[in-house]
Write the structure tokens for this entry.
Amino acid sequence: MAGDQNAKSGTLVVDFDELDDRELMTLHVAGNPDAFGEIFRRHRDRLWAVALRTIGDPEEAADAVQDGLISAYRNASSYRGDAAVTTWLHRIVVNACLDRIRRRTARPTVALPEDDLQVDASRLGETRDAMEEKETSLEVTRALAQLPPDQAAAVVLIDIEGYSVEEAAAILDCPPGTVKSRCSRGRVKLAATLGHLRNRHDDDGV
């Protein structure tokens, strides 16, 4: 059972592991103090990754995730169930990222991501391959930061996070054709910026 009556207090003890995201949202709206925290726990890593890749700055990304989750927490009653909870959360966080990108002033340099997303590389030690992998990741992040925000968000969702065009369209709240167009334009710009990476791999015989 998803919940059992606590004999001493008379309160309902909920087993969150047996509930899906929609059921947790219903509990949250009904006043359960812990349900939204469970939703956050399930999806925080991917939300953080999307925010960091979209905005290109760890501090800004953290603030965007915080802004988005506060908004989602406060406006959970607006969730109608027409999309998956994770889609709804991603839409809010991506919008928070885009708002921050549009508001922030131009900076002379682009902040680089911290080592949080480089776990696989760090485990390998400071070997040549690990160092090259890290540098490639940083160069991709820098290149993404140079794209228009809407294009960067589309490329991140589809090419990095693996969402389908339809899922990305739901998150970005635009038609699938618009997502395809943004990805296409973004990929062309990334190819021009990151073309040297392909040359590097060719030189290494890859």
